[in-house]
Amino acid sequence: MANRLGDAISPYLRSHSDNPVDWFPWGEEAFAEAERRDVPVLVSIGYSTCHWCHVMARESFSDPALAAELNRGFVTIKVDREEHPEVDSVYLAAAGAFTQNLGWPLNVFVTPQGRAFFAGTYSPPVAVQGNPSFRQVLGAVEEAWTTRRADVESTAAQLLAALVAAGEGAADEGDAAAGDAAASGEAPREAADRDRDLDDGVPTAAQLAQVVFELDAYEDTVHGGFGTAPKFPVAPVLQFLQAMDAPVADRALQAMAASDLRDPVEGGFFRYATRQDWSDPHYERMLYDNALLLDAYTTAAERHPGAEWARSTAEGIASYLVEQMQQPAGGFASAQDSESTVAGERTEGGYYALTAEARRAEVPPAFDLKILTGWNGLAIGALTHAGTAFGEQSLVEAARRSADYLLENHLRSDGSLVRASLEGRVSDARATLEDYGMFATALLQLGAATGDERYSSEGARLLDSILALGSAENAAEPWGVPGGGDPVLAARGLLLEGDVSEGAYPSGNSAAARAAFLRYRETGDDRYRHAVLRALVPVAADALLRPIGFGAALELLVRLRAESPTA
Predict the structure, then answer these.
(1) Does CATH number 3.40.30.10 belong to domain 11-158?
(2) Which residue in 25, 312, 413, 538 has the most C-beta neighbors within 10 A?
(3) For 466-516, how does the pLDDT look when each residue is reduced to its tens digit (9 = 90+)?
(4) Which residues fall within 8 angstroms of residue 78, CB to CB, at 6 or more apart?
């Protein structure tokens, strides 16, 4: 059996390289093999710091007998969702037709043409409380494939049609909201009329205030934050509330700073808490969470100069990013694992129960050293903000080191970006809109803070590259990505419209819009403001209805409202 994962860029794929499962990486080879053998494909998606991914790997993918069943009846593909976010997005959307409990590991069964016909998440090794074992799932899928092939193919075709229709419907709604697209070389008066139509689509101050009222009603008034359990930081929503000067943001930030979600020794925040009072976290620490929370706590410290909780928390996060997550070459690791070995025993979170002195005697949880362009952009921007606000030049220098690493290693000679790298080797995964938008934003922020025109000009060039590839026919698509989307998905008609919703961090659409907004503020060039309007007006209605899923878009809409001629 070939070991196809041992030399992968993704540490997650490498961790599965010694499984008895005959894994393929994402690519054409796996689908060609499925076509040749006429068997279904298991697309198994996870990430390096995912606790339940580790559990399923130990229980199922390391079991030789179960692996033999997989190898006999399926072609198996292992995907790092952080390396291939478009693959994850497409199959996560498809999985929603089969389970409401979406998450990772995500196991999607697809035809040799890549079309999903069944999906699930974690499956136990033996049936538990009505949940079938993974072996039972495999048996049912294989039985359906061999005895009810027509039904399987029909399900797959109907699901794909529904996903495509949903994407097209969203695009149509966007066109209606944004108005007719600008034709190349249109007259100035037509452009002005078009911009007035777009300005009319920016939510009013009253509508934005109503969102704050609704989020206030959703607040956990005992423990801070929103909802019950599990409890997530939802940093983009907090940043929107800060832009609205809403006290609920400070209450949430102060509660989280004093909670078990924060590591008081090393300063970073964990991904989420399993209990309403922010206790019993899942202990993985993500670069994007800590970057966005650093930004939010820095803003809180600026707004409340005497609030020691805000500044000390921001400084703790910055210390964690620079001292723990930043690699010698300059880039930031994507995440730190939830599991480690303490006193010879595997534990999730046991390391974080130790004092600083006791930790020195143990090996800390491993980092996923994969460097992601977009997430590094978030860290660069946050460190630039904190360093400037607190007069800590060392933080700005840390941001510069990361930016310099990316410009040297993640920028191709043709001007396009690399999505991910590891130890100097670059992934063949396509960079996405989030990579361009987040990195362009970071470079513009860094250039403004340092006065180094090199950063500003490169950020503007990246922004202009995605603007130049935007659609002139579809007003809801102001951006394009050099090289296009994932080629394996595209070849199978599976490359759907980009997901504009956001939860833990900004969507690519919002990230690109932020870069354009910064460039508009710097230059006064209306084409950048128009790009922001084209990006955000089509999602404004959904953002007002579902603010938890559109925090970054709402924050920019607040800033657009302040800039609007009718504000």
Answers:
(1) yes
(2) 538
(3) 999 998 767 668 999 999 999 999 999 999 876 677 879 999 999 999 999
(4) 5, 12, 13, 16, 23, 24, 25, 44, 46
